[in-house]
Amino acid sequence: MWKKKRFIVIPLIVTVMLFGGTAGIALADEGDEDTPRVTFVEMVADNLGITPEQLQSAFCDARTQMQELDPEERNAEQFKNILSEILYTEYGIEYGALEDALVQAKEAMHEQLEAYKAQIQERLEARRAELQQRLEARREQLRERLEAHSSEQQEWLEARREQLRERLEARIAEFHEWFEAQKGEMQGRIEAWRNRLQEWREAQKGELQGRIEAWRNRVQEWRETQGKSYGNGTAGSGNGQGN
Question: For residue 216, what are the CA distances in angstroms to 9, 76, 132, 223?
Fold first, then answer.
């Protein structure tokens, strides 16, 4: 179990030494200006009681010695032996202490990442709240504009309605005037026709009266003629009887 654990830690050392410094600086740059820029390498070196430069130098020396070996001899176990020997020879640090320092630095880095995550979350919440406020302000502004536009439209509709009402009343007044004029004209025509009818009636009445008088005269003449004829006949009959 210990060999397996050490075998896993060796590649971790290589990765940390290559990218740990850059990652730590990048994380520190993203934080607040007051946040100290502590890299993973600095954490490991601090846990070992040496400087980051000394740890970096030991790693570079171990990598150089690894490059001098034959390719088939380059493996994680060999790199561990070389690095352990350099740390022990120069600083009296055993490999177990390096492993513990790496674990502690990893936990500290994890805590930094969690704190940074919380900080990012706070910033996101603040940014979300700010955007929400802007959105509400924009929504309110648009609502006010819409209400103003609706008021303008309502005023225009009212003015248009009033204008149409005035036009309709004017047309109704014109129609009433025309109707009154037509009414007067028709009344005049009716009176004229009534007068003509009255004149025609008077004329017909006079003509009929004349005809009646003429017939009456003729009947009177005929009666007188018939009376005279009857008297002469009666007188002749009396003379004959006397003889």
Answer: 162, 166, 120, 10
Look at the pTM and tell me if it is higher than 0.85. Answer: no
Concatenating the DSSP letter of every residue in 4-44 gives: HHHHHHHHHHHHHHHHHHHHHHHHHHHS-TTS----HHHHH
What are the structure tokens assigned to 224, written together?
Answer: 């007188």
- The dihedral built from the CA positions of residue 79, 85, 88 and 90, taken in this order, carries a sign that is negative
pLDDT tens digits for range 75-97: 888 888 898 899 999 999 888 88
Residue 79, burial from CB neighbour count under 10 angstroms (0-12, 13-18, 19+): buried
Q: Is the separation of the CB atoms in 37 and 76 below 8 Å? A: no
Tokens of 62: 């171990």
Q: Where are the domains of the chain?
A: 2-129, 177-216
| pLDDT band at residue 237 using 50, 70 and 90 as cut-offs | low
Residue 166, token pair as written in the block: 């005035």
